[in-house]
Every structure is written in structure tokens, then in C-alpha cells.
Specification:
- By secondary structure, this protein is of the alpha+beta class.
- 42% of the residues lie in helices and 34% in strands.
- The protein contains two helices and three strands; from the N terminus they run ααβββ.
């Protein structure tokens, strides 16, 4: 189990994504979702102080939610 955790952290650091950046992007994603009346599907750091946020925006008249992908500053 410990080896798996270390491997994951190394993979993140090699990709240039730190756990702190991922946590920050998740918080930013939650904020963006709340402002748009949407549900946060995912949030990830794309580097350069930017986050890719995927939202599920409720559909109208009982339709399925719409997927909306945006890039925002951390």
C-alpha cells in the first residue's frame, strides 16, 4: 500500500502536478460550480497556474445535465 502511495506521488511530481495544486483546483472547481448552479464533475491542474474544471449544468425540462469544460486561473 505504501509503495502505491509513493508511486502516485512520484507520478504527480513528474507530471508537474503537486497534491497542493490538485487540492487548490478542486476548491476552485467547487467555487465555479456554485457560481454557475452546477455540479463539479472534476478539476485538475493543467500547469501555468490554470485548472481544467468540468461541470455538470442541469438541463431544462427534465433533460440530462450538460457537460461544460472550462479552464480557469487557480
Amino acid at each position: 500500500m505504501f509503495r502505491l502511495i509513493i508511486t502516485g506521488l512520484v507520478a504527480w511530481s513528474v507530471a508537474g502536478v503537486t497534491p497542493a495544486a490538485a487540492d487548490n483546483c478542486y476548491a476552485v472547481g467547487q467555487q465555479v460550480a456554485a457560481q454557475n448552479g452546477a455540479q463539479l464533475a472534476s478539476a485538475e491542474s493543467v500547469g501555468g497556474g490554470k485548472c481544467k474544471v468540468v461541470l455538470l449544468v442541469p438541463g431544462s425540462n427534465g433533460q440530462r445535465p450538460k457537460r461544460k469544460e472550462i479552464v480557469v486561473n487557480e
